[in-house]
Design goal:
Blueprint lengths: L1 H14 L6 E6 L14 H10 L4 E3 L5 E3 L2 E7 L2 E9 L13 H11 L13 E8 L2 E6 L18 H6 L26 E7 L3 E6 L15 E6 L3 H10 L4 E2 L7 H5 L4 E16 L20 H10 L2 H8 L4 E3 L13 H4 L6 H10 L6 E8 L6 H13 L3 E8 L1 H9 L5 E7 L5 H8 L18 H9 L6 H18 L2 E14 L2 E2 L14 E2 L1
Parallel strand pairs: 1-10, 1-11, 14-15
Antiparallel strand pairs: 2-3, 4-5, 5-7, 6-7, 8-9, 9-10, 11-17, 12-16, 12-17, 13-17, 18-19
Helix pairs in contact: 7-10, 14-15
């Protein structure tokens, strides 16, 4: 709270100097790092997008937009190769030229063991520079959706990275920090002025940005303040200390929208909130059952699924600002169907009967790990689930903490029961499968803390990267989802709804990715 107060006071002092070209931006949690390959996490990518760039970007509507690549297509006569033509005349923030060498280096770096982005690149066997402005990606079989995987894959300056000793990706899961975690040299529309993690990050417009004449670039200075406390965040918007917040608390929507000179803009988000369970371990660390794992029994997982009242969470916790779901896939994604999205039957008596059948008629206790600064009402959702699972005899001990402490539990496999939210920037089910369903093997499954492993399912997931018959590919996608649902691998809660609050001067629409790109913002 002290840091939040310090940040607000800092903003208040800056407010007098702010002009129409300064955007003061706040959200609940900060970026976890400036190393662009170290975390595959929304707020981290969002900050990176202001200063780094990928080859391809998604605009505020979710459509593809050329960034550091001007065009891309499969190579004529060789379906195993994608050719990307690079934008010419682009400079890094320190004045160095952007070339194909930087692209090759960045992708090779992003494929390494400590990278959080490697699952997106598993089908790539070689990245080669044809000349300074042409790159070829060679894949293990034709990959018709390869470009979908590149929208959050940021390009670093090879020389800068080597000179600063950060060719290795920061290992966040082990607590490592590096020069790249707090410094950067990108090609993006904004340059880094200063950064104090969890307090204040200041950026200024890049005077040499290649897109300066192509995008509105309405703001020449961005001041970014993470404000975890919801009431403090709203108060900062209402008082004029900030101009734009990404996460208006659902309980304050009417208050903000009813205030003069403020507006709330809403859209469904490409993100689903769910609980994961460690079903693969022989015994659990954080439960009351000795010598056995209750979550290993599918009947226990099914009982937990039936006990969660998603409608009550929608109405009471989310105040209508969510879409309850039965699958961990938002409707934006290829593979989604209404049948998969149907809610599980809520039946406390039937759930209790399933627990008894599995040998847990007297219930058991378990710890639920939950973030308190990442998703909309994340801790409140977990609190609601505690009560619902208690109705069927499962005593849940809630451990809520910052995402900086929460996410390593999942990545290191040291949690038995946890909340996670998953967005799908590729708009394809393969992205979900690679990270959340494939066996955790060093190349895939980095966010699969369930311990679930199925060799047949793994083979089907791998096959998706090279299947060019879209009907056959979609049939395989459906088979994989059928297995995930039958196993009750996860407990889906809802698709998240975005509410951005801003002054009337801020010109933008809400991105379904929840990733404002300030080069698209205008001043009304």
């Amino acid at each position: 709270m002290l840091r939040t107060t310090t940040a607000i006071l800092t903003l208040a002092m800056l407010a007098g100097a702010a002009n129409a070209e300064t955007l003061r931006w706040a959200r609940a949690g900060d970026s976890l790092t400036l190393d662009p390959h170290a975390q595959n996490e929304g707020p981290t990518h969002t900050l990176a997008h202001q200063m780094y760039e990928p080859l391809i970007i998604r605009d505020q509507t979710g459509a593809f937009e050329p960034a550091l690549a001007t065009d891309w297509a499969p190579k004529e006569g060789d379906p195993n190769v994608w050719v990307f033509n690079l934008r010419q005349g682009v400079k890094f923030h320190d004045g160095a030229d952007f070339t194909a060498e930087d692209v090759v280096f960045s992708f090779e770096r992003a494929k390494t063991e400590t990278s959080a982005m490697k699952e997106l690149l598993t089908s790539i066997v070689e990245v080669r520079a044809v000349d300074d402005h042409t790159v070829e990606f060679v894949t293990d079989g034709p990959n018709p959706i390869l470009p979908n995987n590149f929208t959050n894959l940021f390009i670093m300056d090879k020389d800068w990275t080597e000179a600063n000793g950060v060719t290795a990706v920061q290992d966040i899961a082990s607590g490592e920090t590096t020069y790249a975690a707090t410094n950067l040299n990108g090609t993006g529309p904004y340059t880094l002025v200063s950064r104090e993690p969890d307090v204040l990050t200041v950026m200024e417009a890049n005077p040499d940005y290649w897109g300066a004449g192509e995008f509105p670039m309405g703001y020449d200075r961005i001041e970014y303040t993470p404000i975890q406390n919801a009431a403090t965040r709203v108060a900062a918007l209402l008082s004029g200390e900030v101009d734009f917040i990404q996460d208006v608390p659902v309980q304050d929507l009417e208050r903000v929208s009813g205030t003069d000179n403020l507006t709330v803009k809403t859209t469904p988000q490409n993100r689903t909130i769910f609980f994961g369970m460690n079903s693969g371990a022989e015994d659990l660390e954080n439960d009351s059952v000795e010598g056995a794992n209750p979550l290993a029994d599918v009947r226990v997982r099914q009982a937990m699924n039936m006990a969660i009242n998603r409608g009550a969470i929608q109405q009471v916790v989310m105040r209508g600002q969510s879409e309850p779901t039965g699958v961990i896939m938002p409707p934006f994604v290829n593979g989604w169907t209404e049948a998969l999205d149907a809610l599980p039957e809520g039946d406390v008596a039937a759930a209790q009967a399933l627990l008894a059948e599995a040998g847990y008629g007297d219930g058991f206790s378990i710890q639920l790990d939950c973030p308190n600064d990442r998703y909309v009402n994340d801790e409140a959702i977990c609190q609601a689930a505690v009560g619902m699972l208690g109705q069927i005899g499962i005593t849940v001990n809630l451990n809520a903490q910052s995402k900086a402490q929460h996410f390593p539990l999942i990545q290191n496999g040291t949690t038995d029961f946890y909340m996670l939210g998953w967005g799908v920037p590729t708009y394809d089910s393969e992205y979900i499968f690679n990270f959340l369903a494939h066996t955790k093997d060093g190349e895939r499954g980095s966010w699969n803390a369930t311990g679930f492993s199925n060799a047949d399912l793994d083979a089907k997931i791998v096959s998706l990267a090279s299947e060019t018959d879209l009907d056959a590919r979609n049939a395989t996608v459906a088979e994989i989802w059928s297995t995930i649902q039958d196993e009750t691998l996860y407990l889906p809660i809802h698709h998240q709804v975005l509410n951005w609050g801003m002054t009337d001067a801020v010109g933008t629409e809400v991105s379904p990715e929840d990733d404002p790109k300030f080069k698209h913002f205008s001043v009304n």
